[in-house]
Amino acid sequence: MDHKILLSESDIPKKWYNIAADLPTPMLPPLTADGTPISPESLAPVFPMNLIEQEVSTERWIDIPEEVLDILYRWRPAPLRRATYLEKYLDTPAKIYYKDESVSPPGSHKPNTSVPQAWYNKQFGIERMTTETGAGQWGSALSFACSLVGIECRVFMVRISFDQKPFRKIMMQIWGGNCVASPSTETAAGRQVLDANPDTPGSLGIAISEAIEAAVSDQSGKTRYGLGSVLNHVMLHQSIIGLEAKKQLEMVGEGLPDVVIGCAGGGSNFAGLAFPFTQDKINGADIEIIPVEPTACPTLTKGPFSYDYGDIACMTPLMPMHSLGHSFIPEPIHAGGLRYHGMSPLVCQCVVEGLHTPQALDQMECYESALLWARTEGSICAPETSHAIAAAIREAKKAKEEGKEKTIIFTYSGHGLMDMTGYDAYLSGKLSEYHLPDEEIARAEECLKNHPQAEQRKTGKW
Ligand SMILES: *Cc1c(COP(=O)(O)O)cnc(C)c1O
């Protein structure tokens, strides 16, 4: 039995998969504040046109440029591993596979999109990218990519993480990135929040507002903004995870998996693995596909499906998605990457259609699973990743109860070696269960009620 299943470099996928081509009903368009569909041109101050083309594309397959592949080879193809020691511990008939995205230099799946984003920006003549970061994963991934393609990078980092995770800030500096705590005094959006609430822990929504403002206000026209998740072109770039995984499962004689799992913050590592398998599900395969989120930020399981902004200052278009409201400021739970108020519209459409069935898990169960993982498989996972592991453990236990030899696969989205503060809090008994109270859902509904209605398009097949 193989513990790790490796592809040779020549087997790397040469095209990304775009699920927009296969959705049973077409996506709702993003809207401007007055409710009209946005034109691609209106996004031009924010993103380079070559990425906007990918954002709105409905082509099923899109070529990965040779030069992008040349950078991805530094760590890709990523290993598919089998969690045999965990399987033994659980005494389950299930086979648990995981796609190990922790092997990239910044330690997560995020460079799968930061590299092409930096590359397309450079191709378009852009000299500087701005962005936001939560736990610091995306900021470090974009700093890494910008240094490799040779452009500048400026990162607005959510205050709470800036304080809790100083090491990621240093990683950004090592790769030449420039990192400031958000809200900052450098932008109008940041100053406004600080005036109202000087002690705010910040949020991804606030940091996004600042990063977009910093990009569009550069009079030279040589600055653009990059987003690490949520958008269609990010899901596209991440599809390399699932495309590789499919080949690897075939190599060990597995057909399609029974269960596909990923933790979901903005949806990208989940979608990266899940969308190529979702195509099979659309075409008739029987696969359970589960995005997993924290009970502290239950966007897909409790957030209304509505048009909402991606940021607190309402600078992004209105996107059709499940949302806890763009003014949502989450509790400072330790899985910083899973605290966003919204979710990828493509993932949300799959949930509306019934192709994906989301779950919300509490952080105590997730840390307990992370410890079991470290003591069986050996590696220390990111707090975000622990949500996928906890869900995989639940599924493996269920398979035992049912006496079924199921094949489970999940994205191991990143390592946790920079996240010792969270582990320390857990080990010293400082963490507790936290379920978002119902008043907060009511507050979300209030925040969303004046936005355009998002039609629930559903064929009823799933
Ligand atoms: C950023 C991050 C996530 C959450 O982002 P998604 O876009 O939902 O994938 C999950 N795990 C790790 C390790 C991350 O860095």
Would you give an account of this structure?
By secondary structure, the protein is α/β, with parallel strands linked by helices. It has a domain at 4-10 and 63-107 and 232-448: Rossmann fold (3-Layer(aba) Sandwich), CATH 3.40.50. Helix content is 40%, strand content 15%. The mean pLDDT is 95.
The helical percent reads 25-40%
Provide the residue-averaged pLDDT. Answer: 95
Gap between N and C termini, in Å?
Answer: 35 Å
Total count of helical runs of at least 4 residues = 18
Structural class: alpha/beta
Short description:
The chain is of the alpha/beta class and 462 residues long. The chain has a domain at 4-10 and 63-107 and 232-448: Rossmann fold (3-Layer(aba) Sandwich), CATH 3.40.50.
Write the layout of secondary structure elements.
Blueprint: E1 4-5, E2 15-17, H1 49-56, E3 61-63, H2 66-72, E4 80-82, H3 84-90, E5 95-100, H4 111-123, E6 128-133, H5 137-149, E7 152-158, H6 159-164, H7 166-174, E8 178-182, H8 188-196, H9 204-216, E9 223-225, H10 232-238, H11 240-251, E10 259-263, H12 268-282, E11 288-294, H13 299-302, E12 305-309, E13 318-322, H14 345-353, E14 359-361, H15 363-376, H16 385-402, E15 407-412, H17 420-427, H18 438-448
Parallel strand pairs: 5-15, 6-7, 6-9, 7-8, 10-11, 10-15, 11-14
Antiparallel strand pairs: 1-4, 2-3, 4-5, 12-13
Helix pairs in contact: 1-10, 2-4, 4-5, 5-7, 8-9, 10-12, 11-12, 15-16
Bound molecules: pyridoxal-5'-phosphate.
Pyridoxal-5'-phosphate binds next to helix 5 and helix 12.
